[in-house]
Each structure stands twice: as C-alpha cells, then as structure tokens.
Amino acid sequence: MTFRSLTANFYHLILSRSSRNIADSFYWIALSIGLIQVYQIDAGSLSLFALLGLIPQLTSFLYGPVIDQIKQDKTWLITFQVSQLFLIISIICCLTFKWQVAWMYGLNFLFHLVTVCLNTMQMKIIPDTLDNDDDLIDKSIDLQYATSNVLDILSNFLASCLLAVISYKVLLQLSLPFFIAAIYFICRIQLKPKQTIETAADKEPNKKENLAQSIAIFRSSPYASLIVMVESFLSGGTDLLLTLMPLYLLQEGISIQLVGLVLAVQRGADLLGAFIAPKLSISPRRFFFMDYIISGTCLLLVFLVANPYLKLFLFFLTFVIIGISGNIFEKLIYAEYDHDKMAVVYSTNSSLYAFWGILFLLIPSVYQNILVLGIAINALTILVGFYLAINYKKEA
Q1: Residue spans per domain, the chain
Q2: What are the tens digits of pLDDT across the range 166-222?
Q3: pTM
Q4: CA-to-CA distance for 18 and 186, rounded, in angstroms?
Q5: Ramachandran bin of 194, using left for φ above 0, alpha for ψ from -120 to 50, beta for the remaining angles
C-alpha cells in the first residue's frame, strides 16, 4: 500500500494542518519576542503567560464529549479556524497599538482554547476522511508525523532567519496567509453528514456526565490508557529537563551558545525517528517497554557521563527513540479506541499531558537540583519499562 491510496479529503486535511504548522511557528516565535519588546515582561510573567495557555488543554476532558456530539464537523472546523484568524489579527493590533498586557493574556487564553478545540475536531474527522480504513489510518499517521516534523524544523529555521532582516510584527503578519490557506483547504474537504439519533443526554450534556463519559471511554482500553498515563507523565518530565537545559549546560561548564546546537540535534533526531518508524514492524505492546528502557538509559547516561560529545550522542539517540515512539503511540490510539470517540480520547489525552506538564514546571519553584531531577526522572522511566516488560512476558 502506498500514500497514493490516501483520499483527496485526507490530503486536504494534511495541507490544512501543514499550513497551520507553518503559521503557528511564525506566530509563536514572533509573539515571544513581541511580548518582551513591547511589554518588557519578566521571566515570572512569561511563565504565567505560558501556564494560562495550558488551562484550555488541561480542562479539555470536560468539553471533549461536547465536541464528540457535534454533527456538523466541517462547519465547526471552519468556525474554529476563522476564530483563530480573528484572534491572530487581534493580537497583532494589541502589539501594534500597545493595549494593556491583560488583553494579551486574555487573547492568548482564547487562542489556546480555540486551538485545542480545532485539534480535537481534526483528530475526530481523520477516520471519516479515510473511510475508517485501519490500514489507511496507519499510513496517514506515518505521513502526518513526518510532515509535521519536517515543517516544524524548516518553519522554525525560516522564522529565525527572517527575524534577522524583518521585525517580529512583519513575521506575525506573514503568518496570516498560512492561516487563510488552512481555512481554504478545510473548505475543500467533503464529509458525509452524520445521521444519528439524538437523546436528551446528547442535547443537554453537563459537566458530571462529560467527566464520567470521558473516563469511561478512556478506560475502555486498559493497555492504551496505561500507556497514555505513562507517556503524559514522562513527557512532562522530559519537557522540564529540556526547559532547564540552558542552566544545566552552564552548570557543566558548557557554553550557553550551544543551546541552539542541542535543540537542532533534538529536532533532527526526532525527524529521523519519524522516518524510521514506518519501516518498523513491531507491536506497540512490545515496543513501549523497549522504548522506556532504552531511552531512559540513554538520557540517564547524559547526566552521568562527563564527555560532552558522548552526552550529545546519547541525547541524539534518546530522541530518535522518542521520534519513533510518537508515531507508534498515535497508531496505538487509533487501533485501541472506537473511531467515533476520537474527540473524547484526544481531549482526555491532552488534559493528562497538560496536567503533568504544569505539575513538572512547578517543581523548580521548590527544588532546583537539575542533576538529581535528571537522574530521578530517567531512573523512573527505566523502572516503568521493566514493569511493562514483565507484564508483556506474563501475557505472552
């Protein structure tokens, strides 16, 4: 089976997501610079800005079931994307006319809320755009993951280069055509209308019902739900270590100027993993315990070995494994859960990732020994890997 087997609908969805990917890269890089230049916000305020943006993701399990019940998927996809475009224009106006910083906090929160809803809707319609064909869904994940990684690297690199010759305001404005292109490609998607019988519960959902429904659907696959909980926890730990990386380099006597090189190695390794993953034929139940043992060991050694070149190689190897893991994780989700409940599954997963992300980001406020944190997080990763390996042997 080749990528030619994928439907025109799916390619329109990919082109829409790719356009948004480029727009997002331009937007986030320009926004971070604009906040500092216009409002001179300090590290604490910038951290608060980021944390507020995580709240919609953290609470998405509450409105995931509502999105799942939406029948007019295409209409709402366009609505969310137009809303996103309107918010970007509002943020540009806010920076240009120097409105109060409170406006920026509010617009940033709304932008994240719309983005979470939009991502959930896109996750929901993927099976429909591929006629619920499991083989095509697996192939589509290979294409999505590789495309996303390539565009992330290229668009971030291009945005960084452009900032050498243009202002952050111009870069923000350059993101607008890509947001508009994303809307255009969504308009090209043709989805079959859903004919379902609405019950009273569908029409008047409440928070308690939404929460119970999210938990029930999430737990419908015991293995997948376990992996999601483990992945979200370890992702929070890894993100914390990456956030603290500049400080760790200074502690190790390594030039802070090498942060760019380290990040380039990380993204390159992640991209390599995305290209390797489609060529692997391994079941998720076998892969994940190997993933945690190998990646945990490599990243643990990063904190234990002294040679900086060996550290960099181990860091590279870790993120090759993580790049492969992301691909197989998405395939696991589509294989284990009901395709009609993808919105609920995605929103619940997002909430877990946001919860652990926030929790780990709060750790440095009470404990700041990066070496101990690195050793502890990765030792725990290895232990989880051995736990899954023992369970795998019992089931085999």
Answers
A1: 3-215, 221-336+366-395
A2: 888 888 888 899 999 999 998 888 877 665 544 444 454 555 666 777 788 888 888
A3: 0.71
A4: 12
A5: beta
